[in-house]
Amino acid sequence: MGNVEGATLDIEFILNSNKAHQTLSYNFSKPIIDNSLEYTIASDIDSVNVLANGKEADFEISQNEEVNTIKINSSEPINDLQMSFNVNDVIFKNGNTNHFFTELSLNKTIVSDISVKAVIPAGYGLYDNSFKPESGAITSDGQNVVVEWDDVDTSKPLLFSVKYRKVTFPSWILWTLIVSSLTILIILLYFQYQQKTEKAMLYGFREDEKKALVFIKTHKNILQKELQNEFKFSRAKSTRIVKRLEEKGLIKKEEFGRTNKIMWRGEFSEKKEDIKDLNEKLNQTFNFWEKLK
Q: Taking the model in full, what pTM does it have?
């Protein structure tokens, strides 16, 4: 992608037993006004879909040896770009173990901030906690095990590897795990509900997001450029942080000239929302263990 700088990029790999569905979501620091953009990938791909500014975009695919080039045509400036496709040659099998392996080469001048996650199929678990880079964090969406990498270094080629296999348990172990997990979850959620301290509110955020959250909570109403100046954040990083806090319902964002006005909305939720969230988490956990049967 030529003439592009300071973009944030989120990459998601949804894995299965023989292929991966890859989604790349770009957010550009300033609109891209080129009539066309190109993205190359050295893999066997199919089922390509492209969205520009949330709308389906015209594109063409050309192939040179083993390299596919996606050329995106747009008659209007692009602020957000999303590409998704199936990648057919990144998952390898060794007996009962599946091995996802891919290499990404990104231009540091184009992408300033990148996050990557790999979603393992429901009913599968990590094999021997094997994944690379080892800086990744293991999480779950209630049904699938997820490995996430934040603040990825784009100065060199990136290698991502995850080994996973189908989980099988004897029934008595399964139900022991279910009961134990639900008991622990209920205890943790009970104390979380009873003790809404600032530490509990900040749990799950990265350090830069915590700094921004406390700053906005203290000042109630600020401009995004004040956030950048206070912590020396780039515009791209502050945009990503504001987007994350807005998705969590903690802040409200409004356009204000060439920047954004950010307003504190308060705690995560009211009591009724807390109880609803508790029930949803319990149901997610129970459904997750049911799929392991």
A: 0.56
